[in-house]
Amino acid sequence: MNIISKTQARPAMDGDGVNIKRVADFGQQRFDPYLMLDEIKSDDKQDFIGGFPPHPHRGIETFTYIMKGGFEHRDHMGNVKAIRAGDVQWMSTGSGVIHSEMPLADANEGLHGFQIWINMPAKDKMRPAIYRDTTMIPNPSLVHANGASLTALAGTWQFADMRDSSITNTSIEGLAGNAAIADLTLPANNQVDLALNHFEAVNVYLYQGTLFVNVDGETKSFSAGTMLCINPQMLATFQAGVTGLGCLILAGTPIKEQIVHMGPFVMNTQAEINQAIEDYQQGRFGALSLS
User: Fold this and answer.
1) Confidence (pTM)
2) Over the stretch 89-106, which tens digit does the pLDDT of each residue have?
3) Does the annotation place 57 within a ligand binding site?
4) How many degrees, rounded to 5, is the angle at CA 246 between CA 225 and CA 178?
5) What average pLDDT does this structure show over 74-83?
6) Domain 141-252 sits in which CATH superfamily?
7) What are the residue boundaries of the Pirin N-terminal domain, all occurrences included (predicted)?
8) Does the N terminus or the C terminus of the chain have fewer Cβ atoms within 10 A?
9) What residues does each domain of the chain span?
């Protein structure tokens, strides 16, 4: 595995006092087409009970993956869905969405999940919003002989030595930047190779355990909360430590457009940001029903 850069997640707070770990880059856009990854992981309700009350978005796509607990999603388009462990949700906000994400009342065993922001190309930023989720269709997974498991959350994936066993998530397709997302888990001390050379850009976010990588003949370790940007043209070898390994793999095609970011809006010019603020303040995003 050839590592281009390393970024450490930082503690942050969002919504109504929700504690998260965040990796973001709206400046250099090192993760292009991805902009940000938030991880919520706590068994203490006080860390997430406030949830994310109604708020707007424009110009991005949000991709949510829940591993434990759950949220209820509501948006101005009329979608009301409980997103629970194993579920994925994709929302292409386009010209504007108002939504809320509140912890489920029956989720009493803590919460662990991710929300990923994907940039949209300028030509699509003002198209109508799109909403999809996998509450009815399970995410397909591929289990390697050594116990490694690859769950496809979006896109097509394969182990390097199982080229006839590629899997495709047909329920969540068409993400901006050809984004493809997978959850890879390995048992303790196991190793697996992934074929990633059909992607232009690949990032790996470690959420559990330790990853060991051979760098110029020296073994280096990376712990949970680390985002690695890797060269997809080099064989990607994942080596787990004594506690196993869990990581999200974020692949895609860089959009390579200058952006301007302000809060929930990501556009290409400051004038477009100003217009987004005005449109929201004037009620042009629609209204969210909480009943």
Assistant:
1) 0.93
2) 999 999 999 999 999 876
3) yes
4) 85
5) 92
6) Jelly Rolls (2.60.120.10)
7) 28-118
8) C
9) 10-136+273-281, 141-252
Grouping H, G, I as helix, E, B as strand and the rest as coil, residue 135 is coil
- Cis ω for the linkage preceding 33 (within 30 of 0): yes
User: With contact defined as beta carbons under 8 Å apart, do 83 and 64 qualify?
Assistant: yes
261 labeled part of a ligand binding site: no
H/E segment holding residue 267 = strand 265-267
DSSP state of 270: H
Distance of CA 193 to the CA centre of its chain: 22
Put residue 89 in one of left, alpha, beta given phi > 0 → left and psi -120 to 50 → alpha: beta
> What would the pLDDT profile of 142-154 be if each residue is shown by its tens digit?
777 688 888 888 8
Looking at residue 166, its pLDDT comes to 55
Q: Which two tokens stand for residue 193?
A: 């190779």
Q: Does residue 76 have a known ligand-binding role?
A: no
- At the top level of CATH, the class of 10-136+273-281 is mainly beta
Q: Which residue has the tokens 């109504």?
A: 16
Question: Around 130, how many Cα atoms within 13 Å sit in the side-chain half-sphere?
Answer: 17
How many C-beta neighbours within 10 Å does residue 42 have?
16
Higher per-residue confidence, 84 vs 146: 84
